[in-house]
Predict the 3D structure of the following.
Amino acid sequence: MGSKRASDTRLACRRCDQCGIRTGVKSDDDDVCVLQCSLCGKEYPFYKSQREDRQLRAMEEKSDMPSACNTYDTIIVGGGPGGLSAGIYALRAAMKTILIEKGAPGGQMAINKGIENYPGFIDINGFELSERFLKHAKSYGLEILQEEAIAIEPGIEFHSVRLANGKTLKAYSIILSPGGISRTLGVPGEIENLGRGVSYCATCDGFFFTGKPVAVVGGGDTALEEALYLSKIASEVHLIHRRKEFRAGRIVQQRINMEPKIKVISNAVVTNIISDGNGVSSIVVKNGEGAESELHVEGIFIFVGFAPNRKLVPAGAKMSEGGFVLTDERCESSIPGIFVIGDLRQKYANQIVVAASDGCISALAAARCVEMRKAGFTNCKLAA
Ligand SMILES: Cc1cc2nc3c(=O)[nH]c(=O)nc-3n(C[C@H](O)[C@H](O)[C@H](O)COP(=O)(O)OP(=O)(O)OC[C@H]3O[C@@H](n4cnc5c(N)ncnc54)[C@H](O)[C@@H]3O)c2cc1C
């Protein structure tokens, strides 16, 4: 062992004939190297050759991945509550797992200042809850790669995830949890004043409008709940909705009617957001007859819908009309071995507890699916 070169110990890599996953170096000598499958533990001694050495060296140059080999049982894309919860369950199911996250772990949960409906916490800051999810996942040794996934390519034996850095990772199963983003109004002044009076998150930015007039745009549950939240902070809240009726639930509508600070403007749309140079100073509202008027507000909170992040959804996966991925009860999409969870999945409610629940279901189902795929079945739906 004494005269071996340092680089030899890290490079060798081949597929285990029992598990099908790639092996890493357990030990090596000048002539004989022992590889070991990281899943079943089977050992593979072999004699080194210069050709092998060259191939392996080239592999090392191409890859700076945290593990010796780029093949996993499952790859989780997205580190919001769905992805992190999937990570916890995947590791507990002894799957070789990596989570790809392009930003900070926690997703939308991390930007929410006060979460009052995650069981076990009467009121918790979203950043703190994200830290707790992350710490929990890391306690099982979850490998997290900070990188953007740019494509998912379904395969027969393995599915692939292409990364923005040019690398490709492979896995028997993929758990896709990239969440989504709020829709915009698309009016002049909206993008220009983002963070200067235009916001998509009242719980994050409401504090900056203490004692000031604001507008809320939208007619669903989120818009009305955020209007109620803002009525505790702002001097007045103009709730603008393009239809005559709200889509929100009855209870929240009753609470809106009982709140004197909230003034409802229905059958109207915002056509312009005006700035005085320091930030939003007014908005232009057009009513059902087409007449426009200027309304003095210093903040505008927009809740006109949510766009699921479907950029990575592979062609062929069945989608709902609204652009959400259709899955079975195990969160498996119509492509065997590709699971979709959280806000990207078609379901009744987009909430942290639901994303976390999806994470659990998908990881347990993926573990079964991986077993099936390793046994040679390409369609793990047979295991359902
Ligand atoms: C303002 C606001 C307030 C909310 N309040 C509450 C509340 O009080 N209670 C509640 O239960 N829910 C609340 N929600 C909803 C809740 O936050 C979401 O339902 C939940 O976060 C969805 O989790 P997710 O894991 O599906 O996705 P997300 O939380 O959206 O996380 C997705 C992650 O994937 C990453 N990602 C995306 N694309 C890629 C890519 N290509 N490569 C790598 N990484 C990628 C993102 O960076 C992100 O971190 C709120 C949402 C918002 C916007």
